[in-house]
């Protein structure tokens, strides 16, 4: 029987044909320019099988932990305040979960499906509007194995990531008040979302600006002096909910993020550097932010490769999602018409190899 993890990719290929028909797109204003984008209904239908698959996934990763926690939550609305008072961190996520139980019952499959629906809504909302090739962006999100890493696992953090992702609108509009409100809301789901506030300042401005170059150099310095970095990090986190991070990754014998994964996620950054002059000439506000977010993602991944994949390696997801807006744009704008076909074929082939390696050899899912 063909694995559902393969069939979901086949579906994206079929969707690319089905949803290429006339009448499925509408004009929208993107950073002051009229662009054609899928209507939300069609874009959501493309992603719906992923949401269904995630909601009915079984106990992959840490899903069973979330299910057991959900089972222990009160089902009466009046009992929620006392329950939340016992929660020590990320109260927003547990409040959301408790409300889901009150409104929809204690079925754990339904619970996972609703969380996937919330996450999927945010992903679809952003990629539908800001990607020049929505289908390719969704394909990249899937074939990079991000949907397994995050929608099947790390659910609490990815709920924060997804909510924070819709803040891109306010970042583009320079509406810092609303952007920070979105990030603070996301931080109630997972406190790590706060990292976006200082890094958003770095991401603003033209692509490959001095702030991003400084960050990459800083990442390299951290790698060279990784011992001192872990000591500083341990002291900095001493009074936070992440105070045991350094000791935990050492105890778990965490050898850091796989170099292959770092290479895959760094590809859009490398392409943007090679095509930086064209990017500067076009001066697209959206792409400038996506390039800088990609640079930040790469810098964090480099650090995680020499420290911890479990802890530091979880931070780049706040930034790497922008890669799937950036990469389709790079292919369409940085390559000649003749070379695009070769690039597309090479891109798909390389990602398929990575997907097989990650899913079959590393995770042994199929």
The topology string of helices and strands comes to HEEHHHHHHHHHHHHHHHHHHHH
> How many separate domains?
2
SSE-based structural type = mainly alpha
Biggest sheet strand order reads 1-2
Q: Extract low-pLDDT stretches.
A: none
| Number of H/I helices | 21
Percent of residues in helices: over 70%
- The span between the termini is 11 Å
The biggest sheet amounts to: 2 strands, antiparallel
Question: What does the radius of gyration come to?
Answer: 20 Å
Q: β content, as a range? A: under 5%
Average of per-residue pLDDT values: 90
Q: How many DSSP E strands? A: 2
What global shape is seen? globular
Please explain how this structure is put together:
This protein has helices at 4-18, 40-55, 63-71, 80-85, 91-104, 108-130, 134-143, 146-151, 155-165, 168-172, 176-189, 196-203, 210-224, 226-236, 245-251, 259-274, 276-282, 285-306, 317-320, 323-334, 337-362; strands at residues 25-30, 33-38. 70% of the residues lie in helices and 3% in strands. The model has no long low-confidence stretch (mean pLDDT 90). Strands 1-2 form a two-stranded antiparallel sheet. It is globular, with a radius of gyration of 20 Å. It has two domains: 1-193, no CATH class; 205-334, no CATH class.
């Amino acid at each position: 029987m063909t694995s559902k993890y393969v069939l979901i990719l086949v579906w994206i290929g079929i969707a690319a044909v089905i949803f290429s028909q006339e009448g499925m797109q509408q004009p929208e204003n993107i950073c002051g320019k009229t662009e054609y984008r899928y209507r939300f209904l069609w874009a959501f239908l493309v992603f719906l099988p992923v949401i269904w698959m995630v909601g009915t996934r079984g106990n992959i990763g840490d899903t069973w932990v979330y299910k057991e926690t959900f089972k222990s939550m009160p089902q009466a609305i009046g009992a929620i305040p006392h329950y939340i008072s016992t929660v020590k961190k990320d109260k927003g996520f547990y409040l959301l979960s408790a409300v889901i139980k009150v409104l929809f019952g204690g079925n754990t499959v339904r619970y996972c499906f609703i969380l996937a629906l919330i996450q999927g809504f945010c992903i679809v909302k952003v990629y539908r509007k800001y990607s020049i090739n929505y289908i390719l962006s969704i394909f990249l999100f899937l074939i990079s194995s991000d949907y397994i890493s995050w929608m099947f696992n790390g659910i609490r953090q990815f709920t924060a990531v997804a909510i924070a992702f819709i803040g891109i609108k306010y970042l583009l509009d320079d509406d810092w008040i609303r952007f920070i409100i979105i990030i603070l809301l996301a931080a109630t789901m997972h406190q790590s979302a706060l990292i976006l506030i200082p890094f958003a300042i770095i991401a603003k401005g033209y692509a490959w600006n001095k702030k991003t170059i400084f960050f990459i150099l800083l990442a390299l310095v951290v790698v060279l002096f990784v011992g001192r970095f872990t000591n500083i990090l341990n002291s900095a986190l001493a009074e936070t909910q992440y105070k045991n991070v350094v000791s935990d990754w050492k105890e778990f014998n965490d050898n850091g993020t796989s170099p292959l994964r770092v290479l895959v996620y760094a590809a859009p950054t490398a392409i943007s550097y090679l095509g930086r002059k064209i990017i500067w000439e076009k001066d697209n506000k959206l792409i400038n932010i996506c390039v800088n977010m990609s640079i930040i993602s790469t810098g964090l991944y480099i650090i995680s490769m020499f420290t911890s994949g479990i802890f530091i390696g979880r931070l780049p997801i706040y930034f790497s999602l922008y890669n799937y807006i950036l990469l389709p744009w790079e292919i369409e704008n940085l390559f000649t018409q003749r070379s695009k076909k070769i690039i597309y074929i090479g891109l798909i082939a390389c990602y398929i190899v990575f997907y097989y390696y990650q899913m079959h050899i590393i995770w042994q899912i199929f």
